[in-house]
Inverse folding.
């Protein structure tokens, strides 16, 4: 299947700093990527849909000014957690649609474990 | 919006037995239903999916069934093995590249 990478895999930062997470589709072009948040032993909660060349679509309750999403190319989307606080600590996972596998098939990145001290 | 419920939350079976996980969805417009397997600390991996124009799909030991009228779909794993132990998530989408709504997950444990 298609390969999606994420960087970094783990980050620890101080409260108040900003953290950028990258999501890349390695062997396919992704016009749409999705960003999820997952708490321990919980399901994946969609935060936003990232569209190449346009503004992201955020889910209800997700602060767009806090979670900045940029999808500047067909293989890269970034999520920036601005002014991070301990409650932002979580597992952030991206996914990308591979049209070659069908318009709906999503492949996930390995996730980024964010810990805010 | 779409709401997906998943049962059971935990499932323990003996190696070689079958496991069944069930999901229900609320939006009759949903027409794409994937299942993902997630091992601890790892990414979710697509194991099988089904579209609403099909009632059943099988891939070796894994099968998925869909009942559109009742708005529920199920994952069936036969001849379970210890490596099947993981969290399984169902999801639903209206297709056309729309977002996935995930169920709450099922922790499957296959005991020797």
């Amino acid at each position: 299947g298609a390969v999606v990478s994420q960087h970094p895999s783990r980050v620890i930062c101080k409260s108040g700093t900003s953290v950028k997470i990258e999501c890349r589709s390695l062997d396919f072009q992704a016009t749409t990527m999705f960003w999820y948040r997952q708490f321990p032993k919980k399901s994946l909660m969609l935060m936003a849909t990232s569209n190449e060349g346009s503004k992201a679509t955020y889910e209800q309750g997700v602060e767009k000014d806090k979670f900045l999403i940029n999808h500047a190319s067909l293989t890269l989307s970034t999520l920036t957690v601005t002014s991070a606080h301990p409650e932002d600590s979580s597992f952030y996972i991206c996914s990308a649609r591979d049209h070659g596998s069908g318009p709906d098939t999503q492949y996930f990145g390995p996730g980024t474990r964010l810990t805010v001290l | 919006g779409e709401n997906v419920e998943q049962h059971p939350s935990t499932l323990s079976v003996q190696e070689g037995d079958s496991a069944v996980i069930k999901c229900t969805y609320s939006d009759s417009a949903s027409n794409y239903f994937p299942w993902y397997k997630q091992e601890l600390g790892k990414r979710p991996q697509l194991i099988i999916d089904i579209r609403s124009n099909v009632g059943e799909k099988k891939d070796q030991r894994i099968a998925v069934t869909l009942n559109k009228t009742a708005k529920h779909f199920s994952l069936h794993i036969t001849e379970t093995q210890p490596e099947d132990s993981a969290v399984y998530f169902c999801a639903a989408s209206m297709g056309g590249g729309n977002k996935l709504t995930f169920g709450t997950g099922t922790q499957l444990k296959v005991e020797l």
